[in-house]
Each structure stands twice: as structure tokens, then as C-alpha cells.
Amino acid sequence: MGVSKTLARGSIPRSPALPPLRVTKDLEIPSAEITVRTSRSSGPGGQHANVTASRVEASFDVLASTALGEAQRKRLLARVGPRVAAVAQDERSQARNRELALARLADRMARGLATPKHRRPTRPTAASRERRLTAKRQAAERKRERRSPED
Questions:
Q1: DSSP notation for 15-26
Q2: Could you tell me if residue 110 is inside a domain?
Q3: Is 70 among the domain residues?
Q4: Is residue 78 very low, low, confident or very high in pLDDT (cuts 50, 70, 90)?
Q5: pTM
Q6: CATH number for the domain including 43?
Q7: Which one of 27, 31, 130, 150 is CB 3.0 to 4.6 Å from 18, fit for a cystine?
């Protein structure tokens, strides 16, 4: 019983039994590189919230990672920063919040690693050019009608 209380208040120990976190189809982060901390959840919840450390924060150190390639590390540093973190306190269960936090961490890292689709410049269509010129002519006519008549 004494062991469970100390684990409930502190960090969850890193366990080799936990599966690696799949970020993309090519990238898996070993569970040893992810730090998972627990604390008491904020907000309503009565007595249960006062005694249960159900809030889970999962974080990943980009600079210390051995799972990332150099290009992936540069992209994550530029887009997310040196530390990627995700928090979950939605559920009453610490285990469910751990799942949510790890899923959010993977999603945040995947979005940081995604390469934006290259935009190929295109030309305006003939119809769009005609619409633009028609709108300009109508605006000019409207302004011309507002002028006072010249004698």
C-alpha cells in the first residue's frame, strides 16, 4: 500500500514493458524517452479529486532523443520547440488520462513533423479575370455617378 501512494503522487516509473509510442508510420518513440508525470486534477470532483492523482502530463525531449533523425529533429525544433508536452485530465482514471496524454503527444509530434504540401502556382482563369474587370468597371461607374454634375 505504501508503494501505490508514492507512485500516485510522483512520476510514473519508466517501464520497458510499455510499448513504444507510434508517431507516424515510420517513427516510433521508445517509452524510455517519454516522461510521464501525474498530479492532482484541477476543477470539480469532490473527495475523489482531492485524493487521486489522475492528471497526466507526458513530455518528450527533442534534443535528447535517439529515435529522431537529424531532419526530423530540426523540423520539430523549428515548429514545436525543444520540449513537446501534452496534458490530460479529462477522465477520472489515471490510466485513461495516460492514454489520452500519449495520444495527444503523438498527434502534436506528428503535426510538427508533417511537411506542408508544396503549392504549385497557378494562373487566374479567364472567367475570374473577367469577373474582376467587371467588378472594377461597376465600382468606377458607381463612383462616377456620385460626382456632382459639371456645368
A1: -TTSPPEE-SSS
A2: yes
A3: yes
A4: very high
A5: 0.66
A6: 3.30.160.20
A7: 31
